[in-house]
């Protein structure tokens, strides 16, 4: 049977903590599975299913939402397809249903490529790649975008992994988010401001049990004080522990990012589809979405990268584990 997410790239590596396995899909260059010594570290889904709630997909050339699918370029209104019709937004970029082609592959890594072609609402030509590589302490992901068109192109990047720790109920995991600000939104999940998390229910810097919170919220100032005032950075080192989940026994799984990862979206759906011994059911999951910009960045300009013709941009993030010793 042919998979609805295309070819499945199996990555395998022997690590000090046991065998690591990842499965990356041809469609959306998505992370369908990542496990360590047989313990799942991301929510998975069946080979014959589409990614539920965007699980594992690459978000390019923008993450999150664009209000009404409208923005301006050179004084001309651009109209994107409303891919979140219930809220009248364009969401999660232009490659979530696109097939990627394989450029390089080893037993423990794969590099996939896809082109963003000029289209309604986004009149730019971009070459993109994403590389997944298993390491001793996790899974590293490297994105590259190159503007191969003739005009300056606005770009932001993100990803949509759902973290877990094997059979530990997600409700019992403690979520920690290293963000100083909360992206305040309207009833359509579009930004209306940015405020300090200090003293609010959005202050997750010391950690909170996931079962006690309900989020579909963006955060800024990841490792900094504000997502609005950061200088341009080019470093690709994984310098920031963006967010993590920790089990009662101390095991943890974290998202790390380079200096380009300035924002994170945390989403805790109660209706994520699972397969159990008695059949399918809906339950709690937690998405931790590393992003280079907040929602509606094409309009606000916050965190937006503007690539000149011929210019390339590289962004790195990783899933890292701790406390899983054999």
Automatic annotation (TrEMBL):
It comes from the Bacteria. Gene3D superfamilies: 2.70.98.10. Pfam families: Aldose_epim (PF01263). InterPro entries: Aldose_1/G6P_1-epimerase, Gal_mutarotase_sf_dom, GH-type_carb-bd, YihR-like. SUPFAM superfamilies: Galactose mutarotase-like. This is Aldose epimerase. It comes from Cryobacterium breve.
């Amino acid at each position: 049977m042919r998979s609805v997410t295309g070819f499945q790239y199996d990555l395998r590596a022997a690590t000090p903590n046991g065998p690591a396995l990842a499965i990356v899909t041809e469609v959306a260059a998505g992370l369908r599975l990542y496990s360590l010594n047989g313990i799942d570290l991301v929510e998975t889904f069946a080979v014959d299913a589409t990614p539920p709630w965007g699980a594992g997909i690459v978000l390019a050339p923008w993450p999150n939402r664009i209000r009404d699918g409208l923005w301006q370029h050179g004084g001309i209104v651009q109209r994107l397809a409303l891919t979140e019709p219930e809220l009248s937004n364009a969401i999660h970029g232009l490659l979530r249903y696109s097939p990627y082609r394989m450029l390089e592959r080893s037993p423990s890594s794969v590099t996939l490529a896809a082109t963003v072609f000029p289209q309604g609402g986004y009149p730019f030509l971009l070459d993109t790649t994403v590389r997944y590589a298993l390491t001793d302490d996790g899974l590293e992901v490297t994105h590259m975008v190159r503007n191969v068109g003739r005009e300056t192109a606005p770009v932001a990047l993100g990803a949509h992994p759902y973290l877990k720790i094997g059979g530990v109920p997600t409700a019992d995991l403690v979520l920690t988010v290293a963000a100083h600000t909360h992206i305040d939104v309207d009833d359509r999940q579009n930004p209306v401001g940015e405020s300090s998390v200090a003293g609010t229910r959005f202050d997750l810097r010391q950690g909170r049990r996931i079962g006690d919170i309900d989020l579909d919220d963006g955060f800024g100032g990841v490792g900094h004080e504000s997502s609005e005032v950061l200088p341009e950075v080019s470093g690709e080192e994984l310098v920031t522990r963006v967010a993590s989940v920790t089990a009662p026994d101390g095991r943890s799984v974290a998202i790390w990012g380079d200096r380009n990862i300035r924002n994170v979206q945390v989403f805790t759906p109660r209706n994520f589809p699972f397969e159990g011994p008695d059949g399918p059911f809906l339950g709690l999951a937690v998405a931790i979405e590393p992003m280079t910009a907040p929602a509606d960045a094409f309009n606000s300009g916050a965190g937006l990268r503007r690539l000149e013709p011929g210019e390339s941009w590289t962004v790195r993030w990783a899933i890292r584990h701790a406390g899983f010793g054999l």
